[in-house]
Amino acid sequence: MNQIKVLWKKIDFCSLRLRLTIGIAIVSALGNGGIAIWMSWRMQQILVDSHKSHVEQIAARLPYDVKLYSEMMQLETGLQKAINNLTNTNSFLWVQKLNRQIIAKSTKWHSLSDSTVAELMAKTEMPIKPEVYKIGQRYFILYSGSLQVEGKLIGKLFIVQDITSEQIMFLAMIQTLWIASILVIIVITAVIAYYVRRSLQPLRQLNQMTEVISAKDLAQAQLHLDNAPSEVKELAQTFNMLLSRLSQSWEQERQFVSNVSHELRTPLTIVHGYLQSVLRRQNNLTEIQIEALETAASEAEQTISLLEDLLDLARADSGYLHFQIESCILNDLVAEVVGMANKYSERTIQIEDKACFVKAKVDYNRLKQVLLNLIDNAIKYSQPDTSIILKLNQQGNQATIQLCDRGYGIPLQHQSRIFERFYRVDEARNHATGGSGLGLSIVKTLVEGMGGSVTVHSKLGEGSVFTVILPI
Question: Where are the domain boundaries for CATH 1.10.287.130 in the chain?
């Protein structure tokens, strides 16, 4: 039962494959069902018509035989003799007056039981045209009409034709026909499902190809389908043109960001230097002037940092961000980073390294940049009276650095997107803290460039844990 529920949940009722299969199967079922119904009706008509013809022949012959016998004997005796002559294994007759008194009847009813005979003879209101009736487990054609000899009404004639054996054979044929129709429908549905699946295979290949295309692969990405229908090939060509346009747009955007960042960094650095120089000679400045210069210097420094991050991302996108990978002891690197962070913040930063040396192959300066970004992020988004913990560990052929804070936490719906560029969980709060939305994106780019990975686990009100995994 559980397996059926699981399979039922896996069925995609909106899929083109399922819709085509069900649609063609319904059309096939209606076609086969319609043919089977028409054949059943037609075969029944042929069977009944053949027996009706025999009954009508008996009804037409009886007056002639009665007239013939009545010339040689009494009418009632001749009537009885004529009925006996026309009675056979499957045909039975009787004649009764208008007062329902039977004046002659078949003397041999063969295999019919007395109760069946009594029930047949009790049907005084029979159809004028022969019709099929079921009595018990047997099938009969019943007919009634007036018996006239030389224009004189003798009574009412009743004829019964037993068609049980033919009807049973007919019903067996109908059952076989329906079973065969159902089997044909099942086979056709299975064949159709297989054919639709094969026909949609190029679309699945197209979907799989497009799933793995990233922004870095746009320039080289090309979709090729050899044995696909012409419509799917046209779709692949349209995709290729779309990818080409996206690649050009992406390249222009990267080039623009790189050029703007490079062109702005130099003049801003000069401006920042002049502002610092003026601040060092502040003897003749008022407090308002000093505050304005400090604000301008701070904004210039933040803008220069933003431009540096943009340049790093542009280099990474273009493949020009180089790493000097070497084996180093992470304990010393973490201690240096914590020492640097303590110079700019009064927060308590603890190191847990389990009294063992942890080594990894990394770019020393790039990893320092990663850890400083993570510490800066933890300082901005946690309370001043809480501590930040850095944990070092080694598991198998991997080294891990965990940065734990007891800050505000990150909502679950945002955790999968916080490493995107310029993505902010809270726009107002990030603006207030001076965040640009590039810090975690830089972290992810640098860590992956060193062959590692970074993840986050967070709960609202309890804080966040960023885990950096590096190869040994």
Answer: 230-318
Does the structural domain 230-318 have CATH classification 1.10.287.130?
yes
Structure tokens at 258: 């790189």
Domain with CATH 3.30.450.20 in the chain: 16-172
Residue 41 has pLDDT above 60, yes or no: yes
How far is C-alpha 141 from the geometric centre of its chain's CA atoms? Answer: 57
Where does the chain hold its CATH 3.30.565.10 domain(s)? 325-471
Render pLDDT for 321-367 as a digit per residue (tens, 0 to 9): 788 899 998 988 998 998 888 887 878 888 887 668 888 999 998 89
Q: How many CB atoms lie within 10 A of CB 160?
A: 26
Q: How far is CA 88 from CA 189, 190, 407, in A?
A: 50, 52, 104
Q: How far is CA 418 from the centre of its chain?
A: 29
Q: State how far the alpha carbon of 396 is from the alpha carbons of 358, 360, 363, in Å.
A: 11, 12, 21
In order of 243, 307, 320, the CA distances from 263 in angstroms are 30, 10, 18
Contacts of 189 (CB under 8 A, 6+ apart): 21, 24, 25, 28
Whole-number Å distance between alpha carbons of 470 and 472 = 7
pLDDT of residue 400: 92
* CATH architecture for segment(s) 325-471: 2-Layer Sandwich (3.30)
Q: How far is CA 257 from the centre of its chain?
A: 40
Taking only the tens place, the pLDDT of each residue in 153-209 is 888 888 887 787 777 787 788 888 888 888 888 888 888 888 887 877 877 777 777
- From the list 347, 330, 340, the residue with the least C-alpha distance to 394 is 330
CATH class of 16-172: alpha beta
Q: Are strands 388-395 and 359-363 parallel, antiparallel or unpaired?
A: unpaired
Question: Could you tell me which of 156, 113, 164 has the C-alpha nearest to residue 138?
Answer: 164
CA nearest 361: which of 452, 429, 289, 281?
452
Look at phi and psi of residue 422 and say left if phi exceeds 0, alpha if psi is from -120 to 50, else beta: left
Q: For the segment 65-82, what is each residue's pLDDT rounded down to a tens digit?
A: 888 888 788 888 888 888
pLDDT number for residue 79: 84
Distance CA 53, CA 60 (A): 10
How far apart CA 350 and CA 338 sit, in angstroms, is 8
Burial status of residue 233 (CB atoms within 10 A of its CB: 0-12, 13-18, 19 or more)? middle
